[in-house]
Design goal:
mainly alpha, 13 helices, 0% strand
Length: 342
């Protein structure tokens, strides 16, 4: 039985998408502003929101026992299959226009196949081409989700304490070579907070929580949204709760369909927006990113990325349908063979 759609998740996902788009668009000199959030924190807050969403959605859909095989199969279909297809699309496009892949050993495509090429790019050269580095970390979270879920249910206070201590210790005595924002010990609390939210806060969310979150969001604007990771964690969670609560009212208004569509295609937009910006910058030039024309350029980035995401979604559906047909035919063939042997 399908669970009820949570429109608060849709709105948070759209907000995270917007933050990441603006953050990367500003790389080209656009200098677009977002209320309450400093430019340096846009990317971190956007990634944090995505991780919170990932933890919350999994906790909502798998609140109880589930089959590991089916769980991981679905994660491959929803996360990696679109990534593989999008990668091939961009690879072929680059090949057509004469852009060659990096001169690296072919075995490094293994990193791409498992979705870790962006996440490991800080450590070693890879064939990183599309999407976001945090895909790799989300894959790690998906692998560990059954363990996290059990800990949140069975030993919530102990688990929260351990995660919190590891987080605070590492941000105050950071000695890793991996960038702080990429470190699993720093990012895990975002994902785990999403699980805690869906297990314990969502069933009891009240207007008082919204008010407290808005106060927290205001405090973030004045004191919290900086480059300090503990402040970003707190501020991002306040923002998540506030936007989530507001999103609960979307089901009562017609505009909800807009957020549904954007939420549905958000992963495809994330996969394509980098290359879209790059090629528009190469074709249009810097002026279209720093002058008043930047709003036209941003619209083009959004429109092209959205169109590619819709196409990607269709290609994913075709692949799944084809795989289903092949599986059905094989099962039918085995059944006929067994019948003939009787």
């Amino acid at each position: 039985m399908a669970k009820e759609r949570i429109y608060g998740i849709d709105l948070v996902r759209v907000c995270a998408l917007i933050l990441i788009l603006i953050y990367h668009f500003n790389y080209y000199g656009a200098e677009l502003k977002v209320p309450f959030i400093s430019q340096d924190s846009l990317g971190a807050v956007g990634v944090g929101l995505y991780l919170l969403i990932s933890g919350a959605v999994l906790a909502y859909n798998y609140n109880g026992k589930f089959k590991a095989g089916e769980f991981y199969k679905k994660r491959v279909i929803t996360l990696l299959l679109p990534f593989w297809i999008a990668y091939i699309m961009v690879f072929v496009f680059n090949w057509v226009i004469g852009v060659k892949p990096a001169d690296l050993p072919l075995w490094k495509y293994i990193y791409t196949i498992i979705g870790m090429d962006g996440y490991l790019s800080y450590r070693t050269p890879t064939f990183y081409l599309i999407g976001e580095w945090f895909l790799g970390f989300i894959i790690i979270c998906y692998i560990l989700f059954p363990l996290f879920s059990i800990c949140v249910q069975k030993i919530p206070w102990i688990f929260a304490t351990v995660i919190g201590i590891l987080f605070l210790y590492n941000i105050t005595t950071y000695q890793w070579t991996i960038p702080m924002l990429w470190n699993p010990l720093i990012l895990t609390p975002f994902f785990v907070l999403g699980i805690y939210f869906m297990r314990y806060i969502y069933p009891n969310i009240k207007i008082e929580v919204l008010i407290a979150s808005l106060i927290g969001a205001y405090a973030c604007d004045r004191f919290i949204f900086t480059n300090i990771m503990n402040d970003i964690l707190v501020g991002t969670f306040f923002l998540f709760v506030s936007v989530f609560y507001i999103g609960r009212f979307l089901q009562k208004v017609k505009v909800k369909v807009v957020f549904e569509k954007l939420s549905k295609y958000s992963w495809g937009i994330i996969l394509f927006h980098h290359v879209t910006m790059k090629y528009l910058y190469d074709y249009l030039g810097e002026e279209w990113f720093i002058s008043s024309k930047k709003y036209i350029t941003l619209f083009l980035v959004c429109a092209i990325s959205f169109g590619l995401a819709v196409l990607l979604n269709r290609l994913v559906e075709i692949c799944i349908s084809a795989a289903g047909s092949i599986s059905t035919k094989r099962k039918a063939g085995k059944s006929m063979k067994q019948y003939g042997e009787k």
